[in-house]
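User: Before I run my own analysis I want an independent prediction to cross-check against. Here's the chain; please return only the structure tokens and, at the end, one sentence I can use as a sanity check.
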Amino acid sequence: MMASKYKETQRTKGIDLIKSGNPVFYGSQAGRSFMGQPRNFVLIENLKNIFEPIRTDVVEYFKKNKISWWGGYKPTGHVLSSQIACLNHLFLIRNDKEAVLSILKNVSNDFKDVLSIVTDNFTPAYIQFESVSVNDHLNEGIPTRGNNCTSIDALIYAVHNNGSNWLIPIEWKYTEFYDNQNKAIEGYKKDPIKCKGEVRKTRYTQLIDDSKQLKSSNHYCYYFEPFYQLMRQTLWVEQMIKHNHNERLKATNFLHVHVIPSENHDLLEKKYKCSGKSMEETWREHLQDQSKYLTITPKKLLTGLNKTKYKDLLEYLLIRY
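Assistant: Structure tokens:
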């Protein structure tokens, strides 16, 4: 895979912040092992990768809800982690109804309220992280948050202006960009019957064909990233709605939100092998109702937060990201 200019820019920024002793990393040095080698962009004190005012609660939240951390059993010290970025941006405001509604209105003016999400083993709040369904609707096995199944980076449970309840799944990207691997044929040469690609198609083909949101005329792009993630999340939220009688979050509709820094051209502007078009153009062409999918930058998402109440958070994010 070719290097990403944006990823390298952000990596260099992180390294410079660490070396300069900038307070956003609370004095931690880098050099922790990642992929078998010490890295100057991975903090030795991994917890200092998390905004200090939320650190204790974040760790407890993941523990109580048995959520897997990206790459291991504890928060990563990797400064480019999108999981950490999502938490750093959103966790502090999760208990603030006014703040959560304000960020939702930055996405769409179609909502008048947000509801507490009671499926957490933690103080119920207005944003949930690494969300999964109560029951398996995607043929993936028992849902486990953050690991081995389709999970949602962040979830808001909202009330539409017409009074109906909606699910707002949020997929958070930071420096990610993707190669041209076709996940539908992964492992085919070694075992064409039981390979990973065939397992995936067995799980999702009929769900895609039955989907009211995904166009089923051509499945090809659904097995290339980032569309593979978006496909599964779309199916997840559709099935949550279809089976809402068996789910604790009762909803009749959804809005799929994709948070991506505008500078990440390697993700946004790449001409994808499966379509020859950019990310958003490719994905929208696969949707029956394009109004149910919106992209927004992290900066725009948090626009309008109370600048006095969230002064420290906003200053931290400005320097860090």
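Sanity check: The radius of gyration is 20 Å.
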